[in-house]
Amino acid sequence: MSVVKEISSVASIALAVDEALTIRRCRYAPQSGGAGRVCLSTGIHGDELMGQLIVFGVAQRILAQPDCLHGVVDMYPMLNPMGLDIGERMTPMGIQLDMNRGFPGAKDGTALEAICHAVVEDMRGADMVLDIHSGTMGKTELFEVRLCARHADALIGEARALSPDLIWVLPDRTNYNATLTAALCDMGVPAMTLEVDEHRRKPQAAAERIVGAIFCKLTQLGIWTGEAAPLPAPETVIPCIRTGEDVCRVSCECPGIYEPQDRAGEWVAAGETLGRVFDALTGEVRETITAPSGGLVFSQRSYSPVYPGTLIARMFTGKCARGGQNA
Amino acid sequence: MKKDILFTLPSYFRDDMNIYAYRFGKGEKTCAVVGALRGNEVQQLYVCARLIAYLREIEKEGGILQGKSVMIIPTAVGASMNAGTRLWAPENMDINRRFPGDVHGSTTERIAGALMERLRLYRYGIQLTSFYQPGSFVPHVRVMDTGRQNPELGCEFGLPYVYVRTPRSADRSTLNYAWQLAGTQAYSLYAGKTEEIDEAAADQTLRAIIRFLGSRGVIRGDATPGHASTIITNDDVLSVTASTAGLLRRVKFAGAHVRRGEQLAFIMNPLDGSVRETLKTPVTGMLFFVQDGPFITEQSPVFQILSGQKG
């Protein structure tokens, strides 16, 4: 085998009772030389598990075709190990903070800030970082690549190589600035957030698509010469949200239980039904949720309790005909 | 006193959650006070309840001055308080990270947005808040450095310190920050404990608010004199951080004056009782913050010391 596999500790913080919180990295590298370096991270949010299967799939393919690896692939599958262990989105440890609002962190800061700092420093110099997220328990997502606005021009072409269903350029809001990918981009490291469907009943197919896309990116960077999904053809259109006018947030106004129609990935017309909110106590439908305008449903709520304001769906409503806008 | 419902959040499984505003006086919207924005902010709720009870009596005696008014919102998260959750559980969100909010947005954005719509009308704003880590502060006024802050006015609370804090990324979505940007002179008061009632700190905080309302001409002043406040910044505060983990046993507590090299706490191996680390102060000063959880994690700030002449 011509791949060197090395597991190392990126950061370690002692916990009170006989345990350490350790962020581990597994590096796959060719025996000699290297054509570049890509980092795959996931598990910042402890309630998102899809990245585990994707990283495992990437590792399996590298190990199956070791001679095809010509650069370094660093994997960080458990960035929030305490949260992952109990299925909690935030860092538990008593303070419940969103780790993905804590980057770039600080070497001499709190434990969480020190961990965030160690992670970005370890990724410094990479040719690309892909941070994999997945919908939480109550949501279904298409495969999206999310970019921060101030770095979008440089990254949209990179995002296309992953053949996502949608590219979303997020505005430079202050709280997004503290995400892992935004902090890395600010350090000059190209980084993108991948949002994929959790699809807990049939995760393999969804994961396989993302694994293929990652190998396409590795191929493009000259790191991989084995099996990979093809690059999208130049004429392929990928919907791209660039401004607030390209996206429509659909929410409900009544509390109750939301019963969805499966619209994820569909182009719907204005007025088409997305789902309904019902009341089991009175046996009544409280609200029927319809699409406020035509567009692509790329995010939808699953069967779950809702409050007024709960996100039901997100739709791409950009100025393009059915089939998408060029990214 | 007038009580009105500022916002109602209908619920499916439970009773609707109402956010109440208690108003005293008529005329100019002079000062608004906000209590609990997190489900564990018991002390903050308690201080507001005591303030409402006080103003109710003052109003009966004609003690609210002509043309001035004050509004108090004791809690915006009654449902979380009843459920025993710090965050807004359906979204797993901290409402004090959702400002300025959006009345058409998500549930927590709607709560924040509804609050902001009313609060932005007031000239002065007071938020009773808690720190994200368990611990005790020396009671103080905190104001964000937004470029619009007025720390000198914060001295009118008569608390020992007015802390002008440089905002970090996450601070920019707090009520204090958004309130200042909306044009209100906003102050946060740290009232000692959070999850339990601390009578002494509650009394001190209550007196500070009454002092400020008197000073600003909202109520007839019968407040006891306060401290001559010292204005401090991040540069005046030094952290003492644990370099190991275990059971934290404090020797010194918030407010204590400490001399350089003095022992502040020790960290004990939780299994065999041996001492892993002794925390000492590197400077002479006053303990401004003391972490009070039983467990401590490596690289956690345990103490904040106000050093030099200001301590």
Question: Can you describe this structure in just a few lines?
Answer:
Chain A contains 6 helices and 18 strands. By secondary structure, chain A is of the alpha/beta class.
Structure description:
The complex is a heterodimer of chains A (327) and B (311). Chain A has 327 residues and is of the alpha/beta class. Chain A folds into 2 domains: 3-236, Aminopeptidase; 245-316, RNA polymerase II/Efflux pump adaptor protein, barrel-sandwich hybrid domain (OB fold (Dihydrolipoamide Acetyltransferase, E2P)), CATH 2.40.50. Chain A contains 6 helices and 18 strands. Chain A has a 9-stranded mixed β-sheet, sandwiched between helices. In chain A, strands 6, 11, 13, 16 and 18 form a 5-stranded antiparallel β-sheet that branches. Chain A has a 4-stranded antiparallel β-sheet with strand order 15-14-12-17, with no helix packed on it. In chain A, a hairpin with a 4-residue loop joins strand 14 and strand 15. In chain A, helix 1 packs across helix 6 (203-220). Chain A is globular and about 65 Å long. The two termini of chain A are 40 Å apart. With 311 residues, chain B is of the alpha/beta class. Chain B has 2 domains: 2-228, 3-Layer(aba) Sandwich (Aminopeptidase), CATH 3.40.630; 235-310, OB fold (Dihydrolipoamide Acetyltransferase, E2P), CATH 2.40.50. Chain B is built from 6 helices and 18 strands. In chain B, helix 4 (151-154) links the parallel strand 7 and strand 8. Chain B is globular, with a radius of gyration of 20 Å. The relative contact order of chain B is 0.14. Chains A and B meet through strand 1 of A and helix 3 and strand 17 of B.
Blueprint (SSEs and pairs):
The complex is a heterodimer of chains A (327) and B (311).
Chain A: E1 3-15, E2 19-30, E3 37-42, H1 50-64, E4 72-76, H2 81-86, H3 111-123, E5 128-134, E6 139-141, E7 144-148, H4 152-160, E8 166-170, H5 180-186, E9 191-196, H6 203-220, E10 240-241, E11 247-251, E12 256-260, E13 267-268, E14 273-279, E15 284-290, E16 295-301, E17 304-306, E18 311-316
Parallel strand pairs in A: 3-4, 3-5, 5-9, 7-8, 8-10
Antiparallel strand pairs in A: 1-2, 2-4, 6-16, 7-9, 11-18, 12-14, 12-17, 13-16, 14-15, 16-18
Helix pairs in contact in A: 1-6
Chain B: E1 2-9, E2 17-25, E3 28-36, H1 42-60, E4 68-75, H2 78-83, H3 107-119, E5 124-129, E6 135-137, E7 140-144, H4 151-154, E8 161-165, H5 175-181, E9 185-190, H6 199-215, E10 230-233, E11 237-241, E12 246-250, E13 257-258, E14 263-268, E15 275-280, E16 285-291, E17 295-296, E18 301-307
Parallel strand pairs in B: 3-4, 3-5, 5-9, 7-8, 8-10
Antiparallel strand pairs in B: 1-2, 2-4, 6-16, 7-9, 11-18, 12-14, 12-17, 13-16, 14-15, 16-18
Helix pairs in contact in B: 1-6
